[in-house]
Amino acid sequence: MTDSDKRNSLSITDNRTGKSYEIPIEHGTIRSTDLRQIKESDSDFGLLGYDPGYLNTASCKSLITYIDGDKGILRYRGYPIEQLAEKSNFLETAYLLIKGELPDKERLAVWTYNIRHNTMTHANVTKFMEGFRYDAHPMGILVGTVGALSTFYPDAKDISNEESRKLQVRRLIGKIPTMAAMSFRHSLGLPYVHPDIELSYTGNFLSMMFRTMERNYRPNPVLEKALDVLFILHADHEQNCSTNAVRSVGSSMVDPYSAIAAGCAALYGPLHGGANEAVIHMLKEIGSIDRIPEFIKSVKSGEGRLMGFGHRVYKNYDPRAKIIKEIAFQVFEETGKNPLLDIAIELERIALEDEYFVKRKLYPNVDFYSGLIYQAMGFPTDMFPVLFAIGRTPGWLAQWIEHVKDPEQKIARPRQIYLGEDTRDFVPIEKRPKRVIDEQKFGICRL
Ligand code: ACO
Fold first, then answer.
1. Rounded to an integer, what distance in angstroms lies between the CA atom of residue 395 and that of residue 400?
2. Which of 79, 267, 355, 399 has minimal Cβ neighbours within 10 Å of its Cβ?
């Protein structure tokens, strides 16, 4: 081993055996499989890392998104999120994420054309939607419908074919706003609106959501721009819960619709894409500024969380939250102020001065203000995670493609630490000890 190799390595002594090992360090990382050589005996499986929730485990090498959580930095393919939010648009940013570079004028025109000509869905998708109950959560509908697309496009199974991947990318980015709007209109019993090719990607989505009897629906340009920026801010966020779900499910080599449906399902949860919905419920529950101290006290005593605060990676202000706060004021100029805004601003101020939150480095995340904007624009709260899914689709696809093309990747299959029973013999049912069941406690279901 050379001197430079030694400097880029980790010396480990296993005190159980007294043996020493040199583990190479690359990119500030050791390979967990290098730990396997550290054994107590020949029959030992080897040392494992235990990391529930992947707090300190890199699952892939990626060229897509960079985050420095301590400094509050977010970049897509090297471009700062602030510059993309100000100067780009959602479809251009989607191109950047998926292809790796910003497009020239001609490429952008072709990309935009291809996506906008993929916004229609198969007529049977409409029938599929109609199977959902009138009060079905739109995110549940989206999870099901995105998954169902795999049956409409069986060609998508050919994931090693680059042309096929490109086609599925165009289809998914094109159709997801259409299905999102359909899921909303389904819940209201409103007829579905066909895509309007004259409008921008985001303008068309607003049209499919809110158009009623107008001959020529034209979205409010301030709201259209604001929503487009919100989509950019949500477009990727490296190995978050839903992206990890997409990569993990995709690692079985399933088609991208099934993998992206898994991403949608992960996003449905209140700790991820459901957080902005939870923020609105929380603000409503607080109800007035004078009740904030009481609420903060209850959070500190462990009775729930301050939703829209805290992040696994950002231990400083989430850079997206800063941009969103600015957009909120532009939107409220058009729509009138959301009455919950004053509670949110005061809640943020109090929390940022409170030792509990300061000590734990809990700052507002992307979800703290985004829900207030969506609500002011007329989106019901259960559409919030759906909006997140539209924005995140290019990121999921970029990560899925990177995963499929990465020769180092394998089917995702973590290890476990088994702490259950040792071998024991099967006991026939008549010989098992009787257990008294408290029917009330266990809520036995009588059908
Ligand atoms: N309110 C109150 N306390 C919190 C909060 C919060 N929002 N978030 C974290 N904490 C506390 C925890 O109780 C814990 O305290 P302890 O050390 O005394 O036990 C400490 O801070 C660390 O929390 P963890 O749960 O270990 O942090 P983790 O990185 O696992 O969780 C998460 C991150 C899930 C985002 C968390 O901060 C949270 O639940 N926030 C509220 C939900 C939310 O806003 N989610 C959106 C995230 S952004 C996105 O998905 C787009």
1. 8
2. 355
66-70: long-range contacts, CB 8 A cutoff, minimum separation 24: 66/238, 67/237, 67/238, 67/313, 67/314, 69/311, 69/313, 69/314, 69/315, 69/316, 70/315, 70/316
**What CA–CA distance (Å, rounded) separates 319 from 317?**
6
What distance, in Å, lies between the first and last C-alpha atoms of the chain? Answer: 70
Please give the distance, rounded to the nearest whole angstrom, from the Cα atom of residue 310 to the centre of ligand 1: 5
pLDDT in tens, 390-420: 999 999 999 999 999 999 999 999 999 999 9
Dist. CA 329 → ligand 1 center (Å):
27
The confidence score (pLDDT) of residue 401 equals 98
With the most atoms of ligand 1 within 8 angstroms of its CB, the residue from 360, 369, 392 to mutate is 360
Cα–Cα distance for residue pair 96/31, rounded to 1 Å: 30
> Does the annotation mark 117 as catalytic?
no
- Judge whether 311 counts as a catalytic residue: yes
Told to judge if 272 belongs to the known catalytic residues of this protein, a careful annotator would answer yes
